[in-house]
C-alpha cells in the first residue's frame, strides 16, 4: 500500500463505523493560550471534552497535522538522530464523544491493523494501565479483559505506568487510562534472540509505539480525588509515518514513500548517497523532516519571525539550513526547492500547501538567504580568531568568544566546534556553558521585571525573546 492508500483506508474504515471525517486543524493552535502548536489530534476537540461545546457528531475521525517542538511534547532533539520521531507528523485519530467506549475502540483498532492492514499479529504488543495506588488510580481491568478476549491470551499484554498509560488534561479535569499498541519490526533472528515484549517502550528503533487509545472516564478534582465522568469519551492517536513504516516493511520512517521523495531530492542535490555516511544521513533526515514543519506552518499562516510561534519556526528553519550547510555542503538556499514536491505529495490531503506553494517557497528562500549570510559572517569572524590565536594544534577558543559568536552572530556552537576541530582547535565547552548560564541569569532578572513575553534590550539594540524556557538556549535548537 502507498502512504496515500494507507491514510485513505484509515478514514474509510472509520466512516464504515459511523464516523464523520473532519479536516485537520491548522498546525498553529488558534484560540488556545495554553498551546502554541497543535501537538495531538485531540487539541482541536478540547472544548467538547470539557463540555464547552457540542461536536457535529458523536463519532469523528481525521488526520491531524501535529508539531512537537515545544512545551510538554518536545521531540526536536531526537529528530534526525532517531528514525521515528518527527517535528511535524500526521496523527490519525478517531473519537467518541460520550458514544462508544473501550470495547468498540479496541476491537476496531485490532480489526484495522490486522485485517485491513494485514499487520502480523505475533509482532503486535498492547499495554494497559497497571494502576497507581499512591495516586488513587485503579488498574484498567476492563481494557485488560477486552484485550485478553481479542488476543486469546495474556502473552502480548503489558502493564504500563502512569507516564506511558495514563492521560490527564492538566492538574484538574478529565483524565483516564490509555492503551497503547506497539509493533516489533525486527528481523526474525533478532526476535528469536530477544523477545519483543522486553523492548516495548525501551526506545528501540524497530520496536515502536504506533497507536494510543485514551479513555477519558474520570475527572480529577482540586482536592486530588477522582470521580467518574457522566459521559465517557475515547480519544485515539496513531502516528501515520510509523504506521507506513510497519505496513511497508521498512526499518525507518524515512525509508517509506512519505519521505523517499524528499530524501532522494536532497541526496541528489548534495551529490551524496543516503545510507553511506552517518552525519550526512542525519542531515538528510533533519532536512526532510524540517521542511515539512516549516512549509506547513507557513501555509497555515505562521510566518517565521522573532516572537513566539514564529520564532520557533524560524529556528527550525535555521536548524535545517545549518545541517545542510555543515554536512551536505549547501552554500545557497535549497530548502525552498522542496516545496513543490511536498505540495504535490499532499495535494488533496492538506490542500493549503499547493494553494500557496509559490508564496511559501519565497518566504523560505528569503529566510534561508538571510541566515546563510549570517553563517558566512560568523565564518569570516571565526577565521580571524583562529589566525589571532596560536595556530599550532591544541589551541583552544575561549568560552566567552564561542558564546559571543553564538549570541551576537547567531553562529551555532557545534558549528564553531566543528570548524575549530578542522583547524586543530578545540572549544572551551565549560567556559561557554558558564557564559550561557550567566546570560540566562541576566535574562531571568530582566524577565522578572517585565510583563510581556519579549522586550527591547536598549543597550544591545536587539530584540530578545524571553518567554518559553526551552527557547532561551541554543542548545535546544542548534
Ligand atoms: P513516543 O513514546 O514514541 O514518544 P508518545 O507516547 O509521546 O510517543 P502519543 O502522545 O501517545 O505519543 O501520540 C500518539 C501517537 O503519535 C504515538 O503512538 C506515535 O505513533 C505518534 N507520535 C508521537 N510522537 C511522534 C513524533 N514526534 N513523530 C511521529 N509520530 C509520533
Ligand atoms: Mg513522546
Ligand atoms: Mg509513548
Ligand atoms: Mg503514547
Automatic annotation (TrEMBL):
GO cellular component: cytoplasm
Organism: Siphonobacter aquaeclarae
Function: Catalyzes the attachment of alanine to tRNA(Ala) in a two-step reaction: alanine is first activated by ATP to form Ala-AMP and then transferred to the acceptor end of tRNA(Ala). Also edits incorrectly charged Ser-tRNA(Ala) and Gly-tRNA(Ala) via its editing domain.
Residue span, Alanyl-transfer RNA synthetases family profile domain: 1-478
Family note: Belongs to the class-II aminoacyl-tRNA synthetase family.
BP GO terms, sorted: alanyl-tRNA aminoacylation
EC numbers, comma separated: 6.1.1.7
Stated name of the protein: Alanine--tRNA ligase
Entry superkingdom: Bacteria
Residues included from the entire protein: 1 to 478 of 878
MF annotations from Gene Ontology: alanine-tRNA ligase activity; aminoacyl-tRNA deacylase activity; ATP binding; tRNA binding; zinc ion binding
Compartment(s) of residence: Cytoplasm
UniProt KW keywords: Aminoacyl-tRNA synthetase, ATP-binding, Cytoplasm, Ligase, Metal-binding, Nucleotide-binding, Protein biosynthesis, RNA-binding, tRNA-binding, Zinc
Cofactor requirement: Zn(2+)
Catalytic reaction(s) noted: tRNA(Ala) + L-alanine + ATP = L-alanyl-tRNA(Ala) + AMP + diphosphate
CC cofactor note: Binds 1 zinc ion per subunit.
Keyword hit for Ligase: yes
Amino acid at each position: 500500500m502507498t502512504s496515500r492508500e494507507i491514510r485513505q483506508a484509515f478514514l474509510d474504515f472509520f466512516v464504515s463505523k459511523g464516523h464523520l471525517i473532519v479536516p485537520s486543524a491548522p498546525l498553529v493552535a488558534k484560540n488556545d493560550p495554553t498551546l502554541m502548536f497543535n501537538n495531538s489530534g485531540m487539541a482541536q476537540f478540547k472544548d467538547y471534552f470539557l463540555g464547552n461545546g457540542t461536536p457535529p457528531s458523536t463519532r469523528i475521525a481525521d488526520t491531524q497535522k501535529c508539531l512537537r517542538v515545544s512545551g510538554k511534547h518536545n521531540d526536536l532533539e531526537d529528530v534526525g538522530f532517531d528514525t521515528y520521531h518527527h517535528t511535524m507528523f500526521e496523527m490519525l485519530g478517531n473519537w467518541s464523544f460520550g458514544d462508544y467506549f473501550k470495547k468498540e475502540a479496541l476491537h476496531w483498532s485490532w480489526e484495522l491493523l490486522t485485517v485491513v492492514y494485514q499487520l502480523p499479529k505475533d509482532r503486535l504488543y498492547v499495554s494497559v494501565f497497571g494502576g497507581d495506588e499512591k495516586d488513587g488510580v485503579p488498574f484498567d481491568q476492563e481494557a485488560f479483559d477486552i484485550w485478553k478476549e481479542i488476543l486469546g491470551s495474556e502473552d502480548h499484554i503489558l502493564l504500563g505506568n502512569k507516564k506511558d498509560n495514563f492521560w490527564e488534561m492538566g492538574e484538574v479535569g478529565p483524565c483516564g487510562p490509555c492503551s497503547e499498541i506497539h509493533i516489533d519490526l525486527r528481523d526474525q533472528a533478532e526476535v528469536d534472540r530477544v523477545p519483543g515484549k522486553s523492548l516495548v517502550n525501551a526506545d528501540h528503533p524497530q520496536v515502536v509505539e504506533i497507536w494510543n487509545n485514551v479513555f477519558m472516564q474520570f475527572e480529577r478534582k482540586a482536592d486530588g480525588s477522582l470521580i467518574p465522568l457522566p459521559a465517557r469519551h475515547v480519544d485515539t492517536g496513531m502516528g501515520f509515518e510509523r504506521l507506513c513504516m510497519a505496513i511497508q516493511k521498512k526499518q525507518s520512517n524515512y525509508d517509506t514513500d512519505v519521505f523517499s521523495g524528499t530524501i532522494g531530492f536532497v541526496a541528489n542535490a548534495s551529490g551524496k548517497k543516503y545510507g553511506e555516511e552517518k552525519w550526512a544521513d542525519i542531515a538528510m533526515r533533519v532536512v526532510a523532516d524540517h521542511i515539512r514543519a516549516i512549509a506547513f506552518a507557513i501555509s497555515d499562516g505562521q510566518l517565521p519571525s522573532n516572537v513566539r510561534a514564529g520564532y520557533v519556526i524560524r529556528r527550525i528553519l535555521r536548524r535545517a539550513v545549518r545541517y545542510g550547510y555543515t554536512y551536505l555542503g549547501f552554500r545557497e538556499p535549497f530548502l525552498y526547492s522542496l516545496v513543490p514536491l511536498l505540495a504535490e505529495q499532499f495535494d488533496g490531503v492538506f490542500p493549503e500547501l499547493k494553494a500557496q506553494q509559490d508564496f511559501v517557497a519565497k518566504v523560505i528562500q528569503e529566510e534561508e538567504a538571510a541566515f546563510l549570510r549570517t553563517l558566512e559572517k560568523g565564518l569570516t569572524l571565526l577565521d580571524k580568531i583562529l589566525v589571532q590565536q596560536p595556530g599550532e594544534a591544541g589551541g583552544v577558543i575561549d568560552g566567552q568568544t564561542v558564546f559571543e559568536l553564538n549570541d551576537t552572530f547567531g553562529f551555532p556552537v557545534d558549528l564553531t566546534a566543528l570548524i575549530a576541530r578542522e583547524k586543530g582547535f578545540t572549544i572551551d565547552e565549560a567556559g561557554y556553558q558558564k557564559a550561557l548560564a550567566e546570560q540566562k541569569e541576566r535574562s531571568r532578572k530582566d524577565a522578572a521585571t517585565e510583563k510581556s513575553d519579549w522586550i527591547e534590550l536598549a543597550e544591545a539594540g536587539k530584540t530578545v525573546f524571553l518567554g518559553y524556557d526551552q527557547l532561551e538556549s541554543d542548545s535546544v535548537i542548534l
